[in-house]
Amino acid sequence: MTTDAFLADCRARLAFDLFSNTWNAVLLWALRDGPRRPVELREQIGGISSKVLTETLRRLQFNGLVERRESTGTPARVSYELTALGRTLLGPIDAVGAWAFAHGEEVMAAQEAAGAQTHGD
Amino acid sequence: MTTDAFLADCRARLAFDLFSNTWNAVLLWALRDGPRRPVELREQIGGISSKVLTETLRRLQFNGLVERRESTGTPARVSYELTALGRTLLGPIDAVGAWAFAHGEEVMAAQEAAGAQTHGD
DNA sequence: CAGGATCCCCCAAGATACTG
DNA sequence: CAGTATCTTGGGGGATCCTG
Lengths: 121, 121
Known about the structure:
Two copies of one chain form a homodimer. Chain A is mostly helical. In chain A, 59% of the residues lie in helices and 10% in strands. In chain A, a hairpin with a 5-residue loop joins strand 1 and strand 2 (77-82). The structure holds a DNA duplex.
């Protein structure tokens, strides 16, 4: 990453697009400890609908970050887990999350300060 | 970052939202070496309209990541630069960018493979 | 329980044109 | 050159209903 190739066309955009979806990073993070079933993910995460969960999982699967497992057992047991590639993303995700922990307050303070000046966004 | 607080409500979401906008990270990165004028940014980045550039800059400013400078000189010289807070985000951004460099090919390969199986998305 | 199908809303983002 | 205003659109994402 010493290049200026970060810009419009570059493949770095590819990674940022991965973070562009509301739930992508959340889901990857929720899967960091191993396979999870959809119902577990929904409980663990909270606030995500069944439809969106599936969509997001499919998207991650499409990008080779998540693998779908179907135990063709009795009550259609399905689970998802990170692929090797998906696990490599945990580092960057953690970096971002750690930043939020360290500086989240500052951002919120800045937002309030800016909002107060203008109109109270 | 050892918590499970990554999920729906948590403040980690705040950081990911920062990456959720197409140009946020790109602009922060473009500003990593110091102040830049809008016209410079547009040239450097490419593919961003004047309107979107301003919007993005405003958003970053609102979040306390970027500061606007106006040299009240002759032809309305304006420049933007990272705040101290903004500079702390360069680390995570670099982490993500580095990941893209290391694994971008794999993701694209996975996309093609997945697309080929289905219908050629 | 998994997840597809529908309908709807919102807003980021592009195009274009205009003002200081 | 900087920035705004307007119009339009694509698609993420929520809600709801329905099926295997």
